[in-house]
Amino acid sequence: MKNWWQKSLMIAVAVLTLGAISPNHLIWESLLDEKGQPKSHAAESDNKQYIYDWVDQSEFYDTSDSILTTAHQSAEEQSYLKFGSRIGPVIQDEFQTMILPNIQRAIDVHLASLDDSKLKSLAISEKPSGDYAEKIFHIYDTETNIDEIRFHVRTEKKPKIGYSFNFHYHVANDDFQKHITLGDIYWSKNTPPKWLS
Question: What are residue 54's phi and psi, to 5 degrees?
């Protein structure tokens, strides 16, 4: 291969693989020698040290939606962590079809109203509360440690009907006063176990 063609091919592969295979990657050394010819098997036994260059994707691609992906995944993980092994299996199907899409939609709508610099400093709390407390997870600003949005579930007892779980959230815009319902899941007439159990 001509030298310019080799270099073009190496750069194209490096860009397409997002830096996983860089121009000085081991694959090029094993395929081509210094003259552009295939290497012989005798040359493969050389002991060489290779330096791997990894490309930071954020330098070339907009990764601002990563908080949305992280928030969607964490919403599900933190919810099941809160449900525990006694509540989770019972309400899993209804949660997946009715509640989780509403949680993800609320995250999308609320985070869409924030500017990019604010989005980059957001994180998700990792400890849902147990016992009968409401907290599932909060999305907060890591620089100020102030919550932006809080996702909760409350156990409610309705006379002659029984217990149900009310999923809702609160936002910082109104100092977390408004109770925005995401949906309800019926449990039974029996008292549900404590969260995290």
Answer: -105, 135
Q: Which pTM was predicted? A: 0.66
- pLDDT digit string, tens, across residues 110-139: 988 888 888 888 999 989 999 989 999 999
SS (H, E, C) the chain: CCHHHHHHHHHHHHHHCCCCCCCCCHHHHHHECCCCCECCHHHHHCCCCCCCCCCCHHHCCCCCCHHHHHHHHHHHHHHHHHHHHHHHHHHHHHHHHHHHHHHHHHHHHHHHCCCHHHHCCEEECCCCCCECCCEEEEEEECCCCEEEEEEEEEEEEECCCEEEEEEEEEEHHHCCCCCEEEEEEEEECCCCCCECC
What is the distance, to the nearest Å, from the Cα of residue 41 to the centroid of all Cα atoms in its chain? Answer: 45
Pairing of strands 180-188, 122-124: unpaired
CA angle 47, 42, 5 (to 5 degrees): 85
Structure confidence by residue, pLDDT tens digits, 52-72:
455 454 454 444 456 778 888
